[in-house]
Design brief:
This protein is of the alpha/beta class and 321 residues long. The protein has two domains: 7-121 and 266-319, Medium-chain alcohol dehydrogenases, catalytic domain (Quinone Oxidoreductase, Chain A, domain 1), CATH 3.90.180.10; 133-260, 3-Layer(aba) Sandwich (Rossmann fold). 25% of the residues lie in helices and 29% in strands. The protein has helices spanning 48-53, 120-131, 148-158, 172-180, 192-197, 218-224, 250-253, 266-281, 300-309, and strands spanning 7-15, 18-25, 33-42, 61-62, 66-74, 86-90, 98-102, 106-108, 140-144, 164-168, 185-187, 208-213, 228-236, 257-260, 291-295, 316-319. The strands form three sheets. Strands 3, 5, 6, 7, 8, 15 and 16 form a seven-stranded mixed sheet that branches. It has a six-stranded parallel sheet with strand order 11-10-9-12-13-14. Strand 13 (228-236), helix 7 and strand 14 (257-260) form a beta-alpha-beta unit. Helix 2 crosses helix 8. The longest helix is centred in the last third of the chain and has 16 residues, at 266-281. It is globular. The mean pLDDT is 94.
Length: 321
């Protein structure tokens, strides 16, 4: 039976690097909403800054937007959802036992998949970005940054049948994961210059038709730019949240195309989520090698600490209330 209660537990950031689990009233879904019992909620790097910073003189911060769960209440009588349905979608305040989702921003979890391995939002953003990038059969692809986003992009690139996939990351464990997921070549960022220099020594051009940047930091952009071949494409998928992310103007002189991998349009993200979940259902994309830590509501600070310190064993944490 769906677990619908009058009160629920929710994790909130109450101070820098400090979360607290509170008991609050369970919200009621309004028209166009569904209430889910949260079965899994992914920990996203985009929420690391609010956790590090803490509340700025206001209310505690509620995080967690990568949710999957079971419908326990419906706000509209004509909803396409029924109590008991397993769903994933776009939503907030997911580090809780219950959460509200917009009914039209939710999709069914494919049959036979555990919710921890069928969270739609993070792979939807990756699929949407790569769908606007010319990764085609026979192309050379480089992925710079082999954390969750980069390893996810590597799997999605493989579904496009590229000729070669190059993975770049300073973490040896990340490079090993990339090889296990199908990368043909892995490099430390310090090795990129020598790798590219082969183009000037009479050898076939080793640079990529498409470079997918998934670091979210300017040094990652500095590493990605030399890997782009003339008239190639750089897709910036990493989240560059603040400051000025500078691009190497050599991209201009190479005639390169730069794609903004961020998508602000919800319908586009939902279409990408539908496509991505189909890849998960047909075993062409797997969360299994990416979810390295499963924690309870009281483990959220641990998850962000692993993320902040770039623990070699860490790729992604999922909270299971």
């Amino acid at each position: 039976m769906p677990n619908r209660k009058d009160t629920m537990l929710i994790s909130r950031v109450v101070a820098p690097r400090t979360s607290r689990v509170d008991e609050v009233a369970t919200p009621e879904p309004t028209s166009g909403q569904i209430l889910i019992e949260v079965l899994a909620s992914g920990v996203c790097t985009s929420d690391l800054s609010p956790w590090l910073r803490g509340p700025e003189g206001g209310e505690p911060i509620e995080l967690g937007h990568e949710t999957a769960g079971r419908v326990v209440a419906i706000g509209s009588s004509d909803s396409r959802w029924a109590v008991g349905d397993l769903v994933t979608g776009l939503g907030g305040s997911g580090f809780a036992t219950h959460a509200l989702l917009d009914a039209d921003a939710s999709l069914p979890i494919p049959t036979g998949l555990a919710p921890t391995h069928a969270i739609g939002e993070p792979i939807a953003t990756l699929e949407e970005a790569i769908s606007r990038t010319p990764v085609t059969p026979g192309s050379r692809v480089a992925v710079v940054g082999l954390g969750f986003m980069g390893l996810g992009l590597l799997q999605l690139a493989r579904t496009r049948a590229p000729r070669t996939i190059i993975g770049v990351d300073p973490n040896p464990a990340a490079r090993e994961r990339a090889l296990a997921l199908g990368a043909d070549v892995v490099l430390h960022p310090d090795e990129v210059e020598a790798f590219v220099a082969a183009a000037e020594a009479g050898a076939p051009d080793p640079r990529a038709d498409v470079v997918l940047e998934a670091t979210g930091v300017t040094p990652g952009l500095d590493t990605a730019s030399p890997l782009v071949k003339p008239f190639g494409t750089l897709c910036i998928v990493g989240y560059h949240h603040a400051g000025t992310a500078k691009l190497d103007m050599e991209l201009w002189y190479k005639g390169a195309t730069v794609v903004n991998g961020f998508c602000p349009d919800r319908p586009r993200v939902m279409r990408a989520m539908d496509a991505a979940l189909d890849l998960v259902a047909t075993r062409r994309f797997s969360y299994n090698p990416l979810v390295t830590h499963t924690l309870g509501l009281d483990g959220i600070d641990e998850a962000y600490t692993l993320m902040e310190t770039r623990d070699p064993a860490f790729v992604k944490a999922v909270i299971v209330p």
